[in-house]
Amino acid sequence: MKHLLTLKELNEHELLSIIQKAIELKKQPDAFFQACYRKGLLMLFQKTSTRTNLSFQSGMNQMGGYCVPMDWESSNFSLSPIQYEVRYASRNCDLIMARLKNHDDVLQLASYSNVPVINGCCDKYHPCQALADFMTIYEVSGTFKDITLTYVGIHNNVANSLIIGCLTLGIKLLLVTPIINDASWDEELMLATRQSGHIQTTENLSEAVSQSDYVYTDTWIDMEHFHEIEYQEEKQRRIQTMMPFQVSRDNLSGHTPYIMHDMPIHPGYEIEEVLIESDTSVIYQQAENRMHAQKALMLHLLQK
């Protein structure tokens, strides 16, 4: 049985096929109106969500299926071991999408589920976001050949999934990540990046930007912590460290790469507000593509 837990599960051919299918779905949605007829998607949420929730529900409904959103804390998943709950839950659906706090819990779901499990985001990986990101690059540039992407921000779950995808597709990736989320660190993955030759770590944002077709940033403070009183000291430390690495007109130094951000956005922090709506911003296209990429992913996992 196929799952999507990290993006490592897909080889180059599979990843490219999903991206190309997503573009086809975007162009011809009516051709797939019944592609998931009567198929059910269980959506488990431990973390808040806008894009993951809306895109999966809209995508499955547009293909003739249905969704059952379930809050983890309001269900017995919060009370009983995962292995027992998911054995039951997976008898009532065809797919499970889980947006959870800990990657180990996602692994447990997949280990005991009778149906494919999709990691909708955890502390270590965000493969669904990366699918939309690579779809956007392919849609705009028409190729992955000779593309250079810079990711600037916290080394987090998004960074990990971008790394995996770039390793798979052969995209040159420049990482500008002064702060590392300890929970996100994947030593095996970083060893692979060092051996790859086309993924590099640098502290020089201006130099990275000068080489880049795309510059991608992400929030410096996890959304669930942004307003927490007990997190304010760490929040201020991150802001102080990261402000010199803001995606801004000054740091772009006259270069005009496409600007990417996975949202939600904190303008004035990781990105200068004027760039969000700029001519080179593909942020909303990138966000819209979550739905199309996830439709293609669901078809792939259902072997449609």
UniProtKB/TrEMBL annotation:
Keyword terms, alphabetized: Transferase
Entry's EC annotation: 2.1.3.3
GO molecular function, one term: ornithine carbamoyltransferase activity
Domain of life of the source: Bacteria
InterPro entries in alphabetical order: Asp/Orn_carbamoyltranf_P-bd, Asp/Orn_carbamoylTrfase, Asp/Orn_carbamoylTrfase_sf, Asp_carbamoyltransf_Asp/Orn-bd, Orn/put_carbamltrans
Stretches assigned to the Aspartate/ornithine carbamoyltransferase carbamoyl-P binding domain: 2-139
Gene3D superfamilies given in the database record: Aspartate/ornithine carbamoyltransferase (3.40.50.1370)
Record keyword Metal-binding present: no
Pfam families attached to this UniProt entry: OTCace, OTCace_N
Enzyme class: transferase
Coiled coil: none
Keyword presence, Cell membrane: no
Its biological purpose: Reversibly catalyzes the transfer of the carbamoyl group from carbamoyl phosphate (CP) to the N(epsilon) atom of ornithine (ORN) to produce L-citrulline.
Similarity comment text for this entry: Belongs to the aspartate/ornithine carbamoyltransferase superfamily.
UniProt protein name: Ornithine carbamoyltransferase
UniProt organism field: Paenibacillus baimaensis
Phylogenetic lineage: Bacteria, Bacillati, Bacillota, Bacilli, Bacillales
